[in-house]
Amino acid sequence: MFEEKRLHPAVIFFNFIKTLKEAIFPIGAGFFALRNEAFIYFILASAVLLIGLITFSILSWYRYTYRIEDEELRIEYGVLVRKKRYIPKNRIQSIDLTEGIIHRLFKLVSVKIETAGSGTGAEAALKAVKLTEGKQLREELKEIPEQKSMLFDEQTDNIRKPSAKIEFKQLFLAGTTSGSIGIILAILAFLFSEIEQFIPDAFYDNTYQMIIKLSITVIILLAIAILVLIWLLGIAGTMIKYGNFTITRNNDELFITRGLLEKKQLTIPLKRIQAIGIDESILRQPLGYASIYAEVAGGSLEKGEDFSSVLFPIIKTSKIDAFLQKFLPEYISNRDDLVELPKRAKKFYLLRSMYPIILLIAGVVYFWPQFSWIPFILLIASMYLGFLRFKDGGFCIDDEQLTIRYRRLNRKTVVVFHKRVQSFEISQHKIQKEQKLATPILSIVSDLGGRHYRVKDLEIEDVNRLADWYSYR
């Protein structure tokens, strides 16, 4: 692969769509501003802009070339300013393949190449190449013989390459308990805030009058129907995202394939894994389910949820050790034998959970006393959350391995090795000092540059024991 190659011509379409999306709001603003007397100028400006976008997309595709030469991937691109990027083979950490809907129609694939210092995005991204060329490129850069390639290979050796695949009922349960209603509501709120300025005032007035005429029962039923619809959308989104989820270990790498509409294959080198986490959401924990994720050093932020790489979306907590034994046996830990928080720390956890609600109660009682019962219910819920945070906090040291557990809303258990801990800090305010409590803060390398873990209000002797473990004293 020494000759220069260009991406598939479909990249022209991708570039055009991307640029058009970035310009859609200015175009919309121009339409509403000039839709009356100066509309002809808007049409002319839009035509010129459209021709410019098409021309720029063609030139961007034509000027983008890549080749492998002298153990390097060499990329040259740029329309007005010519840029060159050389990526040595030995610096490449992972190569991920993505097949979007349009990619799959034309048997294309997007190739994302990551190095240790890729930051928030991939080091290089080939937006569209033929699937066979994507396989060949990966084999050349990773120096993997063709017969050992894991690229979309359905016939893997389950003995030499252990794998696990999500079942439909697991996938449906993952969508049901994903808690994505809040995320979808936030997205809808953002979209509404963007288009609100273009909605006529008459629409608001008509909608308000229509709602006033409805009875309270109808409004409640309508709200429930909307929440159910959003919940179903969350289920569908999860099933589309994690459909056909398969994880396979091949020597010193994990390969993850997922997606129904957009098929992705992610590569996680084991040497880049900094910690393994178990996430038990407030919905899944009572059902005995959790998800497993990995904190990975370097790379882009596109591999999974919450900037972490999801190793399995949902799994029974009783089967976590069997999963780790199959893929990452060194991360099996004594999760049920933790050093717990001292009882005198309970009041601090309760107060930290309650004080935002107390402020809310004061405001509601003053302005809307008839609704004061609502924040009191939230106060009881916050007290229970504070109790759960106190109950779940703890840690366990097992030679070079450290297990810590904490809760914000979800309960998280993190297993990390001593060599992965980059820094250790002890935080202690005046009240903690009087109570002989302290908060340890451990930091590891992650996608965001660093991930920090803390278990608040531990016994000071236990914190000192953690400090001794970290410093080898």
UniProtKB/TrEMBL annotation:
Per the record, the domain of life is: Bacteria
| UniProt keyword Membrane, yes or no | yes
Annotated transmembrane regions: 12-33, 39-62, 171-192, 212-233, 349-367, 373-390
Record keyword Iron-sulfur present:
no
Alphabetical list of Pfam families matching this protein: bPH_2
Q: Which residues form the YdbS-like PH domain?
A: 61-140, 244-318, 394-470
Q: Which UniProt keywords apply?
A: Membrane, Transmembrane, Transmembrane helix
PANTHER family recorded for this chain?
UPF0699 TRANSMEMBRANE PROTEIN YDBS, UPF0699 TRANSMEMBRANE PROTEIN YDBT
Protein name per Swiss-Prot or TrEMBL:
UPF0699 transmembrane protein YdbT
- What is the species of this protein? Virgibacillus oceani
Q: Name the lineage.
A: Bacteria, Bacillati, Bacillota, Bacilli, Bacillales
